[in-house]
Amino acid sequence: MKYLIISLFPFLFCLVIQSLRMKDASDSGINFSLRYNSILVGQLRDRDGNFKLSEIDISRDISNIDGNLTYGRGGGFDKTCRNCSINQRLILSCTCQRAIRGFKQTTLRTGAFIQNNDRNFEIRRK
Question: Which domains does the chain have, with CATH numbers?
Answer without folding.
Answer: 2-123 (2.30.60.10)
